[in-house]
Amino acid sequence: MREARDPLHRMAYLLCGDRHRAEELTQHALERTYRAWSRAAQRDPLAYARRVLANLRIDTWRRTRREVLAGPDELSSAERAARPVARDGGAGTAAVDDRDAVVRALLALPVRQRRVVVLRHLLDLSENEVAAELGMPVGTVKSTASRGLARLRTLLGALDESAPTTSGRTAR
Fold first, then answer.
1. What's this model's pTM, rounded to 2 decimal places?
2. Domain containing 120 — which CATH number?
3. Which residues, in sequence order, are CB contacts of 127 under 8 Å at separation 6+?
4. In angstroms, rounded to a whole number, what is the distance separating the alpha carbons of residues 62 and 44?
5. Contact present, 43 and 83 (Cβ < 8 Å)
6. Backbone dihedral angles phi then psi of residue 164, each to the nearest 5 degrees
7. Is the pLDDT of residue 26 over 70?
């Protein structure tokens, strides 16, 4: 299960958007998978752990009932210093900003759409695998993924339109 840690952590981060919370979710998912190893080992242990992780995330969401995202302006100086920067000193910050925008857009999706989009398109599972993991029909996976991707395009398109151009004006 060591090799499962990174994919689980990536999934957790994409579901919650917070590195520390993602680490916590990953640890809890691995712990629960270990405790239920006799059941998990009968099938695909990684799929079992992903399902546990998704369920833990839903439980967390239900408890808090709302997501609070801190924008770059709201980060402390220590948190800003910890953000990854390109080796050349800054050209990669656009990539970091793009990644942050995608994570923010994912967090704006309803939980069900987010889970389907993350599993299907970011973890590259087949529609059948996503359906099996989430306990829903394949047709529901397809329609949910389609609606989720359309919503992401809308959200990310709005970000592109509000981004300043090189002339200092916003794109239209």
1. 0.54
2. 1.10.10.10
3. 120, 138, 141, 142, 145
4. 27
5. no
6. -70, 145
7. yes
Task: Give the range with max mean pLDDT: 25-34, 60-69, 93-102, 117-126.
Answer: 25-34
Distance CA 80, CA 100 (A): 13
Q: What does each C-alpha distance from 27 to 46, 81, 113 come to in angstroms?
A: 14, 26, 24
pLDDT at 127: 94
CA distance 81 to 129: 39
Rounded to whole angstroms, how far apart are CA atoms 58 and 134?
A: 12
Q: What is the mean pLDDT of the chain?
A: 78
Amino acid residing at 125: L
Tell me, yes or no, whether 62 and 116 share the same domain.
no
The predicted-structure confidence for 161-172, as pLDDT tens digits, reads as follows 655 544 444 444
CA dihedral 58, 80, 162, 169 (to 10 degrees): 180
Domain span at residue 28 reads 1-68
Number of domains in the chain: 2
